[in-house]
């Protein structure tokens, strides 16, 4: 039975993640490309967590009201931002101050009543307020932890996109170099064919003699008569 419950918990944990829509995925890809084009990468050409904290999070504060505490590694926000958040997410609202967990609306008058001093009432009210404040703080910490985990996931996705873009850039550069080399070789062969007094065998020998870029450039600068000599 214990194994069945454990398997059920694992299955539930897998279904806790919600799939991104196509529109959201496209927007994330656009943001990744923009971050890469802005040079938001470290000395190793990677989008690290430090880059996210120093570049992206300050922009989030101006856009959404969130800030970043580099010491505690947590998000910060003014009270009005939290108020707006709780309005949109009523289920995340912390319990009201002084809310009792007792199911009875009134005290049981049939039992013996003991006098309660004013100091005890004040202490009880203070304890309730402290518990409510602690619950709200813990709730905010949970939210900040989820956001931090999301940032780590986005950073990993950025690294993957950056690697793909870097590979594509290298492939394009390699293709351009091969194209220029082919054009240069064609120019040399055209120049050899235009050189007078050279038979087919001599032309191939001339190609064999042009073993490096310097010789090739010097040969192309010569007049047809000098090439023949």
Automatic annotation (TrEMBL):
Record field: transmembrane: none
Protein name: At2g29880-like C-terminal domain-containing protein
Regions of compositional bias (Polar residues) in chain numbering: 108-119
Organism whose genome encodes this protein: Acer negundo (Box elder)
InterPro entries, per database record: At2g29880-like (IPR055314), At2g29880-like_C (IPR056253)
Ranges for domain At2g29880-like C-terminal: 188-229
Residue span of region Disordered: 86-139
One Pfam family here: At2g29880_C
